[in-house]
Amino acid sequence: MRHLVAIAVVLVAALAVVATLQYRWIGAISAAEEQRARALRDIAANHFAGDVDRDVAQLAASFQGAQPEEVPGRYRDWLALARDKRLVEAVYVGDPDHIRRFDGQKLVETTWPKELEPIRKTLKESARPRREPLFTQIPAIALPLRPGPPPRRMEDEGFRPPPGRDGFGPPPEFGGRPPFMLDGGPPPLVRAMIREQREGPRVVILQLSRDYLTHSLFPALTRTYFGSEYDVAIANGSELVYRSDPHFTRGDIKLSVLRVGPPDSPSWQLLVRRHGAAIEDVIAASRRRNLAIGSAVLALLAGSFILLAVLARRAERQRLQQLEFVAGITHEVNTPLAALTSAGQNLADGVVNEPARVASYGAMIVKESHRLTDLVGQVLDFAGLQARGPSPKRERIDVASLIDEAIAQSRWIAEERKVAVEKTVADDLPSIDGDPSSLTRAVQNLIANAIRHGGDGGWVGIRAERDRGNVAITVEDHGGGIAARDLPHLFEPFYRGRNSDLVRGTGLGLAIVQQIVHAHGGAVAVDRHRARGAAFTLRLPAEAAHA
């Protein structure tokens, strides 16, 4: 027993250590999974933004520092490198007062489009193009044209401005020639700068296709980098320009996209969130699931240990019961055998000659033979029921006759204990269907138990009556009753009550009764509420219930 306790303590400690390590390991795994999921999401978002920014930066670089006459060539160079020409909706060259549109071959005069008014307003208010070229609300990129000489000198056009009015003629005070001018007028770059100050800055405007961005580029990048696991939206301030899920409202991360110019330049924002539950909620659910599975495994191990302990304890108890059974059987067999041997030896040696004493010896031999037969019958019945299982014969049985036979088989023990056996059978009692010999053995065992354990009351009663489609056979006595602690174990094989040390028996009678009754579809019960004596009731289906 001490070894079992020591093993139990070691196993409990091992389970506690395993549970602690498992809890920490699952926590570490969950944290690593969350970190990995966030890293993969951030990498996908950076790739998404990088692809968009690369396309836009490539477009801006293709037209950076161009002059109007270079726009067609720059456009063709960009087409050779571009991912999709649909990115650009239109190309314009203009200043605050005039604008020309590129029609694919050349620049043609047009009027300022309404959607480009924010660019025109900016050009009117500033002498130079603004530092941030992207106009996010359009969207469009406005790049300054490179200053350069006009197609012809104004003098060649026959134009002579009045002296001192615009810098092209010498002021009178200089005698007709300012010192910084050459014979042909100011240098071309200076002339262009002067014209830009007079007319306003000139820019090349690259109007991006909102339709292409929102219906082609953004959905394709969403499928490529996020699949269906994440929802994506593109925001311009409070306006959601694009969203993969109509119910998208708030993102878990925000990243600049469609940015041209310095890092703090205006741009759209890429918003990303996990579809359905947030990452931390998914990881928490996974952690709870892993903990539940791990706890179930530990519980299974603990349950297996408890079950093994219970089975070991039960096996030990059954081993002790079997030892007691063997010892009891040996004692029970030795007693009648010794009596039979002694009586037979005396008769054989002629020690007993008187007829009266010979008759007494014969009665003793019969009584001990009955006891030995009853003992052997119980052992054989139990062994047969355990080994082969019950397979009772089925025939019609009269309950009154069955009870009479059981009383007759118990008469010898009733006479030995001087116990009166009283029978009461209802008149309208139906027949039952079953094996007569086994049912007789069951009733006889109950009668013998009542005589052995309750015979000090001098009376045993047998009552048979109808009970809602069943036949109830009750055997009761007026003895000392059954201890409450013995009630749960009455039908266990080899079990003998605490007060049965002075009563011969094997502890098999009630176990045999229960197996026989169950084989016939019935039940056996003990009255647990009697103040004195004991009462056992067999309930067997009446024959009508089988029809």
Measured as a percent range, the helix fraction is 40-55%
pLDDT < 50 stretches: 153-157
Rg value: 55 Å
Q: Describe the global form.
A: rod-shaped
Task: Provide an overview of this structure.
This protein is of the alpha+beta class and 547 residues long. The chain has a domain at 390-546: Histidine kinase-like ATPase, C-terminal domain (Heat Shock Protein 90, 2-Layer Sandwich), CATH 3.30.565. The chain has twelve helices and 17 strands. Strands 3-2-1-6-5-4 form a six-stranded antiparallel beta sheet. It has a five-stranded mixed beta sheet with strand order 12-14-15-17-16. Helix 1 (2-63) packs antiparallel against helix 2 (71-81), helix 7 (355-388) crosses helix 11 and helix 8 (399-409) crosses helix 10. Mean pLDDT is 81; it is low at 153-157.
